[in-house]
Amino acid sequence: MVRLISQLSPQEEAMFRNMVRRMNTLVATAKDLNVRLMVDAEQTYFQPAISRITLEMMNKYNTEKAIVFNTYQCYLKEAFNEVSTDLEQAKRQNFYFGAKLVRGAYIDQERERAAELKYPDPINPTYDATSESYHKTLTECLRRIKALKDAGEPNKIAIMVASHNEDTIRFAIDKMKEIGVHPQDKVICFGQLYGMCDFITFPLGQAGYSAYKYIPYGPVNEVLPYLSRRATENKSVLKKLQKEKKLLRTELWRRIIKGQLFYKPVGNYTPA
């Protein structure tokens, strides 16, 4: 990695090099095991460094497929521009681009810091504006996927739609159909938190889409704040708990009536 900052102390320099070494170990192992490694996003005052390192890892390891994914928080006003810029970098440097699209989880921290230091609020003003940003960014990724397909070139873009929002999931599926991207292409995948919105994840899997559940793992004092941020990020989802409970009761009753307590739905999903 090219050194851009010369203001680090010797101790900080050693810590930085050790961090890059660890990242290389993680990504190399992921590549050997043929699994994806998705680097999470943090606050805007950390994110440039995280994105820089992640793109360096993409350039080094995403030579045959998208192993490393960067996370883009669409509640940021600059989300679309950041994704577009990174897509261009991947195109110029000829590596596979991987992106996980999320809404974002640090609204209060970002706005408090912006107010304290008197710089413009980096967050979209409303939830609807964030949804618009998410859909616009996803559309741009799909537009580029279609352009590659129309040109007869191999697709070098992979996207995870990490969302619990039903409208966003429908939007993604409709756009996939519109440009002719099929579930079995494994170009777009979907992800929800384990235990949340199963009524979204399961039908996606049954329909053949790549659908994942992610599970926070680590010390309790680190995992609980993470889950708290997810709750803040998904306030509208928490309102759907009654809907999910109703769906579960309906399905349990259906299985009792049909004598299918151990019913296993059959879909057309085939592993990648």
UniProtKB/TrEMBL annotation:
Recorded catalytic activity of this chain's protein: L-proline + a quinone = (S)-1-pyrroline-5-carboxylate + a quinol + H(+)
Domain Proline dehydrogenase: 18-241
Top enzyme category: oxidoreductase
Molecular function GO terms recorded: FAD binding; proline dehydrogenase activity
Gene Ontology cellular component annotations, sorted alphabetically: mitochondrion
Family membership: Belongs to the proline oxidase family.
Protein name in UniProt: Proline dehydrogenase
